[in-house]
């Protein structure tokens, strides 16, 4: 029942869209039996000018005189995309800043590369500490709103435990000298 109503709504919307579409100025049709009235090679530029004078339609319609490229078989298209990529695909990750990776000297020396990796790890941990510092006040506000809304105490306790663990981890990151030694 719902599918039929949806299809009917789509048909009505498509019809309304088609009726509301701007009309292009068209030339009167030539008589079929009069060969002299049929335009020859000069028709495509005239048709293009007529379409330009009428203005673009809803989707910037292309004049009929424009050649349409021949369709490419799907296997060829996929093979080309595999080899060269698809220009329409967005980048997977934002481009990194120049000099963000290790230098050639760091790549050549194992100890220098270990120091580079330690620096990268320290940056990740510092980013976590900064994010936790921003997240804890938001979670505490959520707990207060939950208490006011009458949320069950068990659910509130889970969020309070999360806050406690985030604060503990942040404290361990900020003060590594106070960590218990094994």
Key traits:
182 residues, mainly alpha
List the helices and strands and how they pair.
Elements: H1 2-20, H2 43-54, H3 74-84, H4 104-108, H5 110-149, H6 153-174
Helix pairs in contact: 5-6
Signal peptide: 1-20
Keywords: Signal
Region (Disordered): 70-103
Count of strand segments: 0
H and E order: HHHHHH
Q: What Rg, in angstroms, do the CA atoms define?
A: 33 Å
Low-pLDDT segments: 30-43
Number of helices: 6
Which structural class should the secondary elements be placed in? mainly alpha
Largest sheet entry: none
What is the terminal separation in angstroms? 67 Å
Estimate the global geometry from the Cα principal axes.
Answer: flat
**Mean of the pLDDT scores?**
77
Helix content: 55-70%
Beta-strand residue fraction: under 5%
Structure in words:
The N and C termini lie far apart (about 65 Å). The chain is flat, with a radius of gyration of 33 Å. The protein has helices at about 1-20, 45-55, 75-85, 105-110, 110-150, 155-175. The chain has a domain at about 105-175. Helix 5 (about 110-150) runs antiparallel to helix 6 (about 155-175). With about 180 residues, the protein is an all-alpha fold. It contains 6 helices and no strands. Keywords: Signal. This is DUF4168 domain-containing protein.
